[in-house]
Write a structure and sequence with these properties.
Elements: E1 4-8, H1 12-24, E2 28-32, H2 35-44, E3 49-53, H3 61-71, E4 76-81, H4 87-94, E5 99-102, H5 107-129, E6 137-140, E7 143-146, E8 151-154, H6 165-175, H7 184-192, H8 202-214, E9 224-227, E10 231-234
Parallel strand pairs: 1-2, 1-3, 3-4, 4-5
Antiparallel strand pairs: 6-7, 7-8, 9-10
Helix pairs in contact: 4-8, 6-7, 6-8
Length: about 240
């Protein structure tokens, strides 16, 4: 897998280690120590992956993540954070990061996360461009999943709902098990190809984002319900009870 990666970190030793790691994998890699240098690289070329440290001089990694995502919905963004509190990681996912890793991290784990994100994005992109694939329609509440187009639309009007690749993968995993609770570990494995780490809340964060986009009242969800000790269930009707 040949990828282009931009690493943004103000620790020169970390930058050097990551540059050598990615070059061994035959990735094209550029480095930046702050938001200004990052912007210069992004203006000059397109990257498959942006690896962002949270603690940066000037604009922090979370603010930069929001800016990168707004400019380029397709790029894979991974947040890394040395902070003990996982609030930054949760916020990173809420504003559009595809995954996160706490520092210090294992190089094999980092490569595995990057490759898993890229496989997921590649699969979604390939299926969207292949209109000859068999269409499967899964309806729930006021919405329909169109699997051949990798899209979710309002059933009555056909209006598309804008979802990230991670949000779509998570919704599809629940839609294929419509009306049945699916636990967090299963959802994480199905959508990201990995097991949960201790206190991993990435599924919960994406569930929150889906509720914001699909529920009439996200604070009292009727479509994506929490089932205590069992995970989440996608309701066929989207009604209470």
């Amino acid at each position: 897998m040949s990828l282009s990666v931009l690493v943004v970190d103000d620790d020169l030793e970390v930058l050097d280690l990551l540059k050598k790691l990615f070059e061994r994998e035959q990735f094209h890699v550029d480095t930046a120590t702050d938001g200004g240098a990052m912007d210069a690289h992004l203006a000059a070329q397109t990257y498959d992956v942006v690896l962002l440290d949270v603690m940066l001089p000037g604009k922090d990694g979370l603010e930069l993540c929001r800016e990168v995502r707004s400019r380029n919905p397709e790029v894979a963004i991974l947040i890394v954070s040395a902070k003990g509190d996982d609030v930054d990681r949760i916020v990173g996912l809420e504003i559009g990061a595809d995954d996160y890793l706490p520092k210090p991290f294992n190089s094999r784990e980092l490569l595995a996360r990057i490759k898993a994100v890229m496989r997921r994005k590649s699969a979604l992109s390939g299926k969207k461009s292949d209109s000859s694939g068999s269409q499967k329609l899964i309806s729930f509440g006021d919405y329909t999943v169109r699997t051949a187009e990798m899209s979710v639309v309002r059933t009555a009007t056909g209006e598309p709902i804008e979802l990230t690749s991670g949000e779509y993968s998570l919704l599809l995993a629940m839609a294929e098990r419509l009306g049945r609770p699916v636990d967090r570990d299963t959802l994480l494995n199905l959508t990201q190809g990995r097991d949960a780490m201790p206190y991993d809340r990435s599924v919960d964060v994406m569930i929150g984002r889906l509720r914001q986009k699909l529920e009439k009242n996200p604070g009292k969800p009727t479509l994506i319900k929490t089932v205590r000790n069992k995970g989440y269930v996608l309701s066929p009707t989207g009604k209470e009870g």
